[in-house]
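Hey, can you fold this one?
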Amino acid sequence: MATFNLSKGYDLQLEGQPIKEIIEVTPSDVVKINPQEYKYIKPKVTVKVEEDVLVGTQLFFDKNNPDIKHVSPCSGKIESIDYGPKRKVLSINIKNDKEYNQVELKDLDNLFSLSSISGLNAQATKAIINESGMWPLIRQRPFSKVANIESKPKSIFVSMSPTDPLALDQLFLLNDSSVGFLEGIDAISNLTDGDINIILNNNQSPSMLDSLDRVKIHYFNGPHPSGNVGIHMHYLDPISSKEDEVWYLTIQDICKIGKLFVDGKINVTKLISMGGPGCDKPSYLKVYDGTPISHINDELELGLDDNSVVISGSVLSGKYININESVGFYHEILTILKNVDERHFLGWLLPGLDKFTLTNTFVSKLLNANNTINHNMKNGSNRAIVPIGMWEKVLPMDILPNFLIRSILAADIEDMEKLGIYECSEEDFALCSLICQSKVEVSQIIQEGLDLMYEEG
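Sure. Predicted structure:
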């Protein structure tokens, strides 16, 4: 066990914190699956329009990794397949019959108990997880992509203390439904010879972890991004080369995998946190995978329209979506902001009573009123990178962000490797983008650097 007390970072306390009361959202008429949510894949669709599907029917596979199955989260009929430029698959739309009939899983002829799961070898465990379509739940660093099913990671990480604005309370989640958690831990333990690292903070002490003898418990305390899995890896099991692989997944993912071994069922629901300044009913929602935001909007009467600002994921690192899209496969947060188009003439001369700043630029720093943000708060054009130490104040990693960003912009692969690009992910640099004095999209540049390294092979 290790304890880390981090001081660098910042906790953004958004308005519209969700109430910890779970609202169950009914199944939608249409389920939307977006293959582009998975990084670095080239999807090949395996179904046709009007074809019948069940829960677990393969919808597409990655041409680079054809063994990994991506499956339907509902039963029904393929309604349409949306393509973009160069036949890029944007969305597979399924007319949901709302019965959720499931395919027969050949590798699960016999169900497993907690004691028998640990007796499986890595190959058998992988086969069961992959046949159900749950392998994409497991991601790897570097590159934050679907884990390589042919490899064995040096360790696996599970974070129970996310620090993103509006993040789910993981203990509340586990207390609400812990079925499958212990079984899931045993299952993923079969996938590595290294440690299973579970990350908590000092305010957490779940009793069920006391019975786990195949994991290591660590404590990370401090402001965001101290709850990011990339920060945990940096301190506990750093990635030094492209050959290093560390896998990670969430508590909900573990419970899904555990339930699969116990009852043979593919779980197609998840808990998400919905809130933000533009949300009238902040709460926890239990939704079916692929449910469009428009269905949630209609059922809960949120009053969203095409002009509403909806983000799938954290306000810091999520993705803007329209209400006809669904919450991202990996996202557990639905952020709703106010649509503010107002611009202040010579705004930099105003006292800024409610302006966001981490410097002494505005009075809001003194008034502790530093959490008012909107989606178009860039407040200026791009300019030269001026190193005044702001990035370093919010990045609790032993990395030189200023030099790393410059090496990426120069496409200097050798320097990028020396400066630790393989340890990086865009979500870990989201605060750097938010507070950047030069209006530089730091996290976007980090992703461009990772893309370059991936393409270089």
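Residues 45 and 279 are 36 Å apart (CA to CA). Let me know if you want another pass with a different chain boundary.
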